[in-house]
Write a structure and sequence with these properties.
It is built from three helices and eleven strands; from the N terminus they run αββββαβββββαββ. By secondary structure, it is mainly beta. It has one domain. A seven-stranded antiparallel beta sheet has the order 5-6-7-8-9-10-11. Strands 1-2-3-4 form a four-stranded antiparallel beta sheet. The protein is flat, with a radius of gyration of 19 Å. It binds calcium ion (2 copies). One calcium ion binds next to loops. The site of one calcium ion (CA) has 7 residues, from loops.
Length: 222
């Protein structure tokens, strides 16, 4: 699987990579054909704080599948950057294939949430397929070993049904989630504190928005 895929949208990879990869997409995000890429985010950092750098790549890609629920994929991958651009692939995640739900508009944030010198990755994407519906979900990964990341949390990252025709008026809602970095860092690896900004609840617009915080106990250090 090390060489670049010469043809796009072929199903030939499906048989040799198993069910966790949508047809036509290589396991390594670096091998996604240029014409299938919608967005690409690339960085080099030391994920686990051992002095060796890792490359991190997030690709939102077209899969070539007709089913809208499987038409896009969000791929996250890490590789050994000490080996250059073609360094060994350490880990990859294919969100739609591995969660069985739609995934588009992927975003990532790499940061040290608890101040222990190791990076965490906040990976988020949209699962909504209807125009006017935002349904974002997120996962937070830690990297005690870059080959074996640990998912410490997953959950809603934002929802907006204000413009969604299929949501009844009295059930429309809008919120966005972010991390309260100061409070999270103060928890020293034992919790993540979220801050949710609500602009509509049960069809009632909130102006100014209502901000709520939520502390979730997680183990960021092992
Ligand atoms: Ca490292
Ligand atoms: Ca950390």
């Amino acid at each position: 699987m090390g060489s670049r895929t010469p043809a796009i949208f072929t199903a030939m990879l499906l048989g040799c990579t198993g069910l966790s990869v949508l047809a036509g997409l290589p396991r390594d995000p670096r091998d996604v054909p240029r014409v299938a890429e919608l967005t690409v985010t690339r960085t080099v950092t030391d994920l686990d704080g051992d002095g060796r750098r890792e490359g991190v790549l997030l690709v939102v890609a077209l899969t070539g599948e007709k089913d809208p629920a499987r038409a896009t994929e969000v791929l996250l991958g890490t590789w050994d950057a000490e080996g250059g651009e073609k360094g060994e692939l350490l880990w990859s995640r294919h969100v739609a294939a591995e969660t069985g739900q739609p995934a588009h508009d992927g975003e990532m944030e790499i940061l040290d949430l608890d101040g222990d010198g190791r990076q965490e990755i906040v990976l988020s994407w949209d699962r909504g397929l209807r125009r006017g519906l935002v349904d974002r979900w997120a996962e937070i990964w830690t990297f005690p070993d870059p080959r074996r990341p640990v998912k410490v949390w997953e959950g809603p990252w934002g929802r907006d049904t204000r413009l969604d025709r299929e949501t009844p008026a009295d059930r429309k809602e809008s919120f966005e989630r972010e991390i309260d970095y100061g409070a999270t860092r103060a928890a020293r690896g034992r919790a993540i504190v979220f801050r949710d900004t609500w602009r509509m609840i049960a069809g009632k617009a909130l102006d100014p928005p209502r901000v709520t915080t939520k502390r979730v106990d997680v183990l960021l250090r092992r």
